Amino acid sequence: MTDKFTKPILRNLRMTLQEVLDAECKTDKIPFKFTLGNCTFEEDQAKFQLIVTFKGTTPQDIQRKKEYEDLQQMAKFFDIDLLKKHPRYTLVGYKSKARTKPWIITDNQRSGEFIITDDQAKTLFGKKDVNEFIERQREAQSNA
Fold first, then answer.
1. What is the phi/psi pair of residue 132, to 5°?
2. What are the distances in angstroms from CA 92 to CA 15, 33, 66, 121?
3. CA 13 → CA 8, 32, 47, distances in Å?
4. Opening angle at CA 17, ends 12 and 34, nearest 5
5. Which of 128, 131, 132, 92 has the alpha carbon at shortest distance from 108?
6. Domain map of the chain by residue range?
7. 56 DSSP assignment
8. pTM of the model
């Protein structure tokens, strides 16, 4: 055996450690789920990130919660009204790492999520009248 860490060795070590953690989590003694995250290593040392969540919590739940918390914070910054009801769209989240289209909306008429720009979010959910936007949209459609 070598005295240096390599990617194949660490990959096998990660799988073994994850199996041990999963076996320990199957008991009812521990209400948490352990997941090994990223690994950084040098020749003689390796560091694994350990992610601990409550059982039953999915990564999607955690991501949705963060996006909603970011939405609340950024709405204040961009002067967006979270209580404003748009007839078609609902503002559901904000992706803090997205540069061009960070706002997440759902379409009430069609299923699915979409991402929009800052300007579009201000137009749809800004602290101005939504009816003005709808009338301009209908006018543009009738002219086309």
1. -60, -45
2. 36, 27, 11, 11
3. 9, 21, 12
4. 135
5. 92
6. 7-57, 60-143
7. T
8. 0.61
First CA to last CA across the chain, in angstroms? 73
* pLDDT, tens digit only, all 144 positions of the chain: 568 999 999 999 999 999 998 888 887 788 888 889 899 999 899 999 998 888 888 878 888 999 999 999 998 888 888 888 888 899 999 999 999 999 999 988 888 899 999 999 988 888 766 666 677 778 888 886
The two tokens of residue 38 are 């990223």
Which residue has tokens 């055996």? 1
pLDDT at residue 136, rounded to an integer: 76
Question: Which residue matches tokens 């967006």?
Answer: 80
Q: CA-CA distance, 109 to 15, in Å (whole number)?
A: 45
